[in-house]
Request: fold
Amino acid sequence: MPVYFDHNATTALDGRVLQAMLPYLREHYGNPSNVHSWGRMARAAIDQAREQVAALVNAHPSQVAFTSGGTEANNLALKGGVARMTVGRIAVSAIEHASLLGPAQALARQGWGVDSVAVDDQCRILPSSLSEALNNRPRLVSVMMANNETGVIQDIAAIGAQARAAGAVVHTDASQAAGKIPVDFFACGAHLMTLSAHKMYGPKGVGALIVDKTLEIEPLLHGGGHEAGRRGGTENVAGIVGFGAAAELARAEQAERGALLSELRNMLETRLRDVAGVVMFAELAERLPNTVMIGAAGIDGEMLLMNLDRKGIAVSSGSACASGKPSHVLLAMGVAGDLARGAIRISLGKDNTRQDVENFVAVLREQIGRLQAPSISTWA
Reply:
């Protein structure tokens, strides 16, 4: 039977979310900016979704700015967050997603100084590196809440408090955390928080940036004054409705999902310890309940992925946006390049089973054995 273990890349659209979306793909097609009944119905649906998303992360609905996804939200946080400031420095962690590192590099080309905050061998932010970066008085600090590759959870409340004390705007990418662990925008001390619907069984193409009421950001897209002036463009009503439904389900089912995922992950790790040559990364750190990243020396990770795919198993080599390259996250942790090139990420979902884990480990053991076996010469 096929096994899908790549839920940090994307999740299947929950059937209940699809049902919530369908009316806004067909009969309720009004433009939410119009004042007639069709428009008012669409606007009411967006307002409800805004409340649902806000409730998931303990924010006020007025703080939710819908975007086209996590990538746009990260770009809006960095570029929009500093656009009204004089050029200075920003600090970002070395393990951020490409959608955060990309805009940081774009700001560097515009004259901004960018400091990288290092992590230890368990993928945890190094306090000494954070302190060094804060000594440079950055205007903005960005540290993700949970890493998409290793699943390691950062202490954003402590990091945010330090950064605020240094006078910085604080951003956290919570795309992987929201829906899997409790996330509290108010308590974590961030000014800006990124969310993504398709990481929590919602639709692709919709995300959100949560914005502190005291902060004004410059929109990337001008025109129309949509999203309280934070993002121009007619709203993706059906997608936003789906995001709201997914957020409500994630909030209601978080404890149940977390217990299942923790049980499956513990079972998976127990089985993996018996597979010769396998190394588990960040095993000692607090991690998302669904994520395990492993490596095996002397193995080509892309070849292993393809072989697993032929057997009906979907995993990844890290971020879905950086396939084919050694993980920059593992390299930042000090993992040797050879081991990093052989790394794969296993990310479980709410519909996975114990049998999925057993099937995966059996196939993985077989494939690693084949790839590690010495080649036999056919020459006499």
About this structure: Residues 375-380 have pLDDT under 50 and may be disordered. The first strand starts at residue 3 and ends at 4. Residues 76 and 220 are 6 Å apart (CA to CA). The longest helix spans residues 237-272.
